[in-house]
């Protein structure tokens, strides 16, 4: 079954656009503007990460074994994805998962910085996943 990757592509594109805006304006003195841009990055990171998880699961269930992802932890999911060359760094994906879990608890600038930093890194890793999903989309 060929996976329609459009929603994953769109979520990665949205993350990339918000990061580009952040990079353009992050030295701006307007705190409200910067907070709004950071909020956009965090929201787009959440969506892109969730889409990535769904597509990892779908690909593994379709191409390895039906329901292979049923009942496994995220870390086990990442290990399976790495074993099948969808991702290349299990521990980094665990950090992304942890950052995603923090997004509902962003009350301090330190937590916000941590999530933003992971979101900035995630762009590269999500593009890697997308390329490997495209290359192996049967």
For this structure, what is the CATH homologous superfamily? Nucleotidyltransferases  domain 2
Largest sheet: none
Count up the helices.
Answer: 5
Helix and strand content put the structural class at mainly alpha
- What do we call the CATH topology? Four Helix Bundle (Hemerythrin (Met), subunit A)
CATH class: Mainly Alpha
Rg: 16 Å
Strand content: under 5%
- Percent of residues in helical segments? over 70%
- One letter per element, helices H and strands E, the order comes to HHHHH
Structural write-up:
With 138 residues, the protein is an all-alpha fold. The chain has a single domain, classed as Up-down Bundle (Four Helix Bundle (Hemerythrin (Met), subunit A)). It has 5 helices and no strands. Helix 1 packs antiparallel against helix 2 (31-63), helix 2 (31-63) packs parallel to helix 5 and helix 4 (90-102) crosses helix 5 (109-135). The longest helix is centred in the middle third of the chain and has 33 residues, at 31-63. The relative contact order is 0.17. The mean pLDDT is 92.
